[in-house]
Write a structure and sequence with these properties.
17% strand, alpha/beta, 4-stranded antiparallel sheet, globular
Length: 399
């Protein structure tokens, strides 16, 4: 095994869930390593023993570590990171801070996530700003050429999803970043499904804002997420909500918003999961994001190839670059039926439905797809087990 390769046996030994399930729902919520579990439980026990505020004070360094870990992961500074409860809240806190008015244009992608699109619709109603969907190129990723053609003085935000919830597509985030930089337009990247399964460098990508969740490919606790906001933009984005953590009340009619990214945070927060998130990010950094990506991409490519060889099964992933999310349909079986058939053998997959990525699903005439998302602790044998089960489910449907 080269230094670059993942020691799968060790990864599995350190993941208690591997003894119980075959987990291909890593894009839903991955199995946490034992160190994350121990960190969260340990802090809850400390809170119960000495008091919540007192435990937070005692664990101060472990709590603060999350900012350094997230900054190391994204290649940014710790004061550009806000820790919040999920990717949606991270994204919302930044998105709703952009001052938009009638006729302002937001450019987005076909595979945009449902919650983001709901926010575009709401902001359109409130402000008269319009959202325009940049078409895909022939591979199914956002067309960078079409994006360039769409740029004009009324474009106030480019907001795209890096990896969609419903497939292996990896949008060309850095090429989009180059267009955004050249045009001087703020660029918001939803990296919820990409961070943790591949290296991410906010400078190389050229994004100004990026949102992440903890529980998916980062293998952190549920109910965690974080936001990156470039320093130069921070002071221009006033959060949609303020509290005594985000701002200082300095006179009867005056307040001062804090200068760092923590202006997007809440005062009250879950300290145990914040510590757990720090441990999860450090754990990912310990394996190395290149090594993680290489294994995840390789396993997913094998899974796609094997699925495509099964009669009646159609792989639905788009894009020139494809990551660890593998989606498919099986003739004669709904995605929900396939998921249930696999669950009977303790094999976890999920179903991605129309409303999560409505534009993309409608454009392709899909109502739901089965989503099998791999992580580096999955084995080649597990992939074969999944293939056998899908094959037998599909066979019985067409018999
Ligand atoms: C592309 C994308 N963005 C955002 C989210 C929302 O993340 P969270 O549930 O952490 O708010 C998801 C969740 O599946 C997603 O797939």
């Amino acid at each position: 095994m080269s230094a670059h390769e993942i020691d799968v046996e060790r990864a599995r030994r350190e993941t208690p869930g591997c003894a119980h399930v075959t987990h291909f729902n890593n894009a839903g919520s991955a199995l946490p390593p034992a160190c994350v579990l121990d960190a969260v439980i340990g802090h809850l026990q400390l809170e119960a023993r000495i008091g919540g505020y007192e435990a937070a004070a005692q664990a101060h360094d472990r709590v603060e570590r999350v900012y350094d870990a997230a900054a190391a992961l994204l290649h940014c500074a710790r004061d550009e990171i806000a820790i919040v409860e999920n990717a949606t809240r991270a994204w919302d806190m930044a998105f709703y801070a952009f001052p938009l008015g009638p006729g302002d244009r937001i450019l987005t992608t076909v595979a945009e996530y449902g919650s983001n699109y709901l926010a575009y619709l709401q902001v359109a109603r409130r402000t008269g700003a319009v959202t325009e969907v940049v078409p895909n190129d022939d591979s199914g990723q956002i067309s960078v050429e079409a994006l360039k053609r769409a740029i004009d003085a009324r474009v106030k935000l480019i907001s795209i999803t890096h990896v969609p919830t419903n497939g292996g597509l990896v949008n060309p985030a850095a090429a989009v970043g180059q267009v955004a930089r050249e045009a001087g337009i703020p660029y918001l990247l939803d990296a919820c499904q990409s961070v943790g399964q591949m290296p991410i460098d906010v400078d190389a990508i050229g994004c100004d804002v990026l949102s992440v969740t903890g529980r998916k490919f980062l293998r952190g606790p549920r109910g965690t997420g974080f936001l990156y906001v470039r320093r130069g933009l921070l002071e221009r984005l006033e959060p949609p909500f303020l509290d005594v953590h985000a701002a200082r009340w300095i006179a009867r009619d005056r307040y001062e918003v804090r200068p760092d990214a923590r202006r997007f945070e809440n005062w009250e927060t879950n300290y145990a999961t914040k510590i757990g998130l720090a441990v999860a990010v450090d754990y990912a950094l310990g394996w190395g994001l290149e090594a993680i990506r290489d294994r995840v991409y390789r396993l997913a490519a094998t899974l796609r190839e094997r699925l495509a060889s099964l009669p009646g099964v159609v792989v639905r992933d788009l894009g020139a670059e494809r990551c660890g999310i593998v989606t498919f349909t099986a003739a004669g079986r709904t995605a929900t039926e396939v998921k249930a058939a696999l669950a009977a053998h303790a094999v976890n997959v999920s179903v991605s439905s129309r409303s999560s990525t409505l534009l993309d699903m409608d454009a392709r005439g899909l109502t739901e797809v089965v989503r099998a998302s791999v992580h580096y602790y999955n084995t080649e044998e597990e992939v074969e087990q999944l293939i056998r089960l899908v094959a037998s489910t599909a066979r019985r449907a067409t018999a």
